[in-house]
Design goal:
This protein is an alpha/beta fold. The protein has 12 helices and 8 strands. The chain is globular.
Length: about 240
């Protein structure tokens, strides 16, 4: 590799340690979100009430959803004045999610994650790209992750990072709470969601952390910025 263009700020220093030429160009998610046309009728189009929304983003992998969604849906018993709404992944159908929902009144929306987040008071998000999207949209979140115990044990032995969510990794400090494996239970999630809803100072702290995130990510325009740099370096 003659030159690398990174989309996450912390990648730059990592690759520079190995003598590589690196530029941070911004993150394409900023472009995706800034170009997105939000639906002002999201609630009406999905038959949602005006009750505050707790968005559930259980991920896009079957292993993750199987482990995490059962813990998420139990929140419906703890927050009766809120409505839970699941962001469905395109590779699964409604019936797949309904087997975890049972008789609970929890709607599922597909291909509307940004609209769901924009309308949510709080989000419970499986660690992955969605944590960064939630941070960019400035929705207070609780990051969760649960997988096969053996896989997690191996990962903990091999991977030496302080955090798992992109928001925390980019800010390089605990900006949003992470509940991983044995700490990813309905009780733990309920406690953290409750803090966001009830504790104004805690909520404000998360929003301040999102301001730091926005500053570190920079402005939209990653693709055009990259193209201009490529041309410039080739001309040199």
């Amino acid at each position: 590799v003659d030159h690398m263009f990174c989309i996450l700020p912390f990648e730059v220093d990592f690759y520079k340690r190995f003598g590589m030429k690196v530029d941070y160009v911004g993150n394409p998610l900023l472009d995706a979100i800034s170009d997105y046309t939000f639906n002002p009728n999201f609630r009406q189009d999905n038959n949602l009430s005006e009750e505050p929304i707790i968005a559930l983003l259980p991920g896009s992998r079957k292993m993750e959803i199987d482990e995490i969604l059962p813990e998420m849906v139990e929140l419906s018993f703890s927050f009766p004045k809120h409505q839970l709404v699941i962001a469905g992944a395109p590779n699964f159908d409604k019936a797949y999610y309904e087997k975890y929902i049972g008789n609970l009144d929890i709607p599922i929306v597909f291909d509307q994650t940004y609209d769901l987040l924009r309308n949510a008071e709080v989000a419970v998000v499986t660690s992955g790209t969605a944590t960064l999207e939630t941070g960019i949209l400035k929705v207070p979140q609780v990051v969760v992750y649960k997988a096969n115990p053996i896989s997690v044990w191996i990962a903990r032995k091999l991977i030496k990072v302080k955090f798992i969510s992109l928001v925390n990794l980019i800010n390089d400090y605990l900006s949003v709470i992470e509940l991983i494996q044995e700490n990813c239970t309905t009780g733990d999630i309920k406690e953290e969601v409750g803090k966001i809803i009830m504790d104004a100072e805690h909520r404000a702290s998360i929003m301040e952390n999102y301001d730091v995130l926005a500053e570190k990510l920079g402005e939209p325009g990653a693709s055009s910025r990259t193209a201009k740099l490529i041309v410039r370096y080739l001309q040199e």
